[in-house]
Amino acid sequence: KQVIFSGIQPTGVPHLGNYLGALQQWVRLQNSAGPSTKLLYSVVDLHAITVQQDPKQLRQWRREVLATLIAIGLNPDRSILFYQSSVQAHAELMWILSCTASMGYLSRMTQWKSKLSLKDDASPLDTGSKAKLKLGLFSYPVLQAADIMVHRATHVPVGEDQSQHLEFARECVTNFNHAYGPHLVEPTTITSPAKRVMSLQDARQKMSKSHPDPRSRIVLTDTPNEIKRKVMSALTDSTNAVSYDPENRPGVSNLLELLSHLDESGRTPSELGSVYSNLNLKEFKTILSDALSESLSTFRDQYHKIMAEDEGRYLDHVAIKGAKKARESAEETMVLVREAIGF
Ligand code: ATP
Ligand code: MG
């Protein structure tokens, strides 16, 4: 049986990277899934607190992210949409997996290092890391593995930055199954063509919700004016011409990639580079920002409609219904797991 699971952190309003790298794929999978496929998409608030959050802000972002999922086309009657913290089994299975997960493997993961701006070869026991690194941030991939396994997910659609964690999740399955028998399912990673959308301010970094500079990302609720301002101020290079050359011109190339993801005739970034080779950067950026505004306009309307008529009610209703179904789904696995362990 096919089970699709994925999650997004309520650490801000989702951006183009989230959309093109993951969310768009979630909708595609929902719309092409046969009736026997189970789909679960979670607002992973337990993950969000691995970096300190303001409680009021977190509460707001949880709702905004849930509204985003519905506004992009996820149907709460078809896909199970839920807040991770309302399904306790995620945390329970995390503890169990922690008992067979390898510290050495976790030490090599890059996300805790990048979230703390540490070097790639940092170790959790370095004096520089020890003070800053919290246990939750370090063990985040174990919780992510539990998220996936507790629903017996077979397929996990994520952006490329998560492929290392998915690799680790498969390792968790192997370790658990080796110790207790073949009860957990190995998940397959699904990545979309937009594996990694880069920051508008630094094309060597991925676009992120939690990056302090809001100009580095286009969020799905940005107005045409905001989109225009951000695209116009996107960092390129000193050559005032359009060409696709990811090695030497990462800034412009990132913009061409963005345009290519929106292009209805499916032209590649390098094809678009030739098509627009006669434009200067300002002219090209205008074309890109118009295309972005256009493609986000339906979303924006939907989102504001949901938030306006909502006043808490509709989203609460979706979350309660989703939590109930997700708890049932998780419990099916937990019964097997507890039995296998000897509880
Ligand atoms: P944060 O900065 O708080 O980690 P984020 O922008 O990385 O936020 P997540 O909630 O961590 O977003 O990830 C949600 C999904 O979006 C994941 O599947 C992740 O792989 C994907 N994703 C995040 N950023 C990008 C990006 N720049 N390009 C493609 N996919 C992305
Ligand atoms: Mg992230």
Automatic annotation (TrEMBL):
Compartments, record wording:
Mitochondrion matrix
GO terms in the biological process aspect are: mitochondrial tryptophanyl-tRNA aminoacylation
Q: Which domain of life is it from?
A: Eukaryota
Keywords, A to Z? Aminoacyl-tRNA synthetase, ATP-binding, Ligase, Nucleotide-binding, Protein biosynthesis
Q: Which GO terms describe its cellular component?
A: mitochondrial matrix
Query: Kind of enzyme, top EC level?
Result: ligase
GO terms, molecular function: ATP binding; tryptophan-tRNA ligase activity
Taken from the record, one Pfam family name reads tRNA-synt_1b
Stated EC number for the protein is 6.1.1.2
User: Which PANTHER family does the annotation name?
Assistant: TRYPTOPHAN--TRNA LIGASE, MITOCHONDRIAL (PTHR43766)
The record's similarity note reads: Belongs to the class-I aminoacyl-tRNA synthetase family.
Protein's name in the database:
Tryptophan--tRNA ligase, mitochondrial
Q: Which organism is it from?
A: Coleophoma cylindrospora
Name the lineage.
Answer: Eukaryota, Fungi, Dikarya, Ascomycota, Pezizomycotina
